[in-house]
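Supplementary Text 2. Reproducibility record for the structural model of the 252-residue chain.

All settings were left at their defaults, and a single model was retained for analysis rather than an ensemble. We include the record here because the model underlies the residue-level annotations in Supplementary Table 4.
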Amino acid sequence: MVAWPMQIVGVIPARFGSVRFPGKPLTPIGSKPLLQWVLEGARQSSKISKILVATDDARIKDLANSLGAECAMTASDLPTGSDRVWKAIEHETVDVVVNIQGDEPLISGEVLDALVSPFMSDPQLDMATLACSIKPDELQSKNTAKIVTNHLGEAIYFSRFPIPYSRNSYEGQPDACLKHIGIYAYRKDFLKKFCDQSPVSFEKGESLEQLRALYLGARIKVVKVDHQSWGVDTPEDVELVVKKLKEKYGNV
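Retained model, structure tokens:
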């Protein structure tokens, strides 16, 4: 990885006790544990100067260390991955921190570089996230978060419902919003502000923590990429993700 003048640190939150999938970071995905896939993808970045694994479990720490990764031990009872990321870099010298989801084995350095690029040209930017084009069936799914942006490509609102609402059609307007990919980059000072703020009502209503950033007045740059997010949320997702990895890399 090439270090830029700006200090950019990537953090992979990797908690052991997932309710839906305990021990997920250690789970074999093809021939490698899930955490290894994420680390290898993140290490392709040319703009991230350091990568940390933030965990609460010695087994995950041992795996990270065996893969040559630095590890930050964090408390088990932290409420979100963002809080785990903050605790990992709280005392680090960091300009921008990237929250690299620990269950995204298809993440690539190219996508992460696109995410952090806006910070290079905009010193006032608080936060950035990723998005891609949305399909009509995804627009209707409450499992898919949507984004509406302004003319600057900054987020106006996120929702699990089809947005913007169409008075003329129950099908919504797929050309008026984007599909959110839940990977974030923050300026360090804004991440602290975000974690210091308790969850707000409409964040809890939508179950989307990025709405807290909008509540705080953050400018969130939305970077559109040609990347579909394939996360491992439950054991049932493993087979599909292995199939996607084989399509990308061949034998896995």
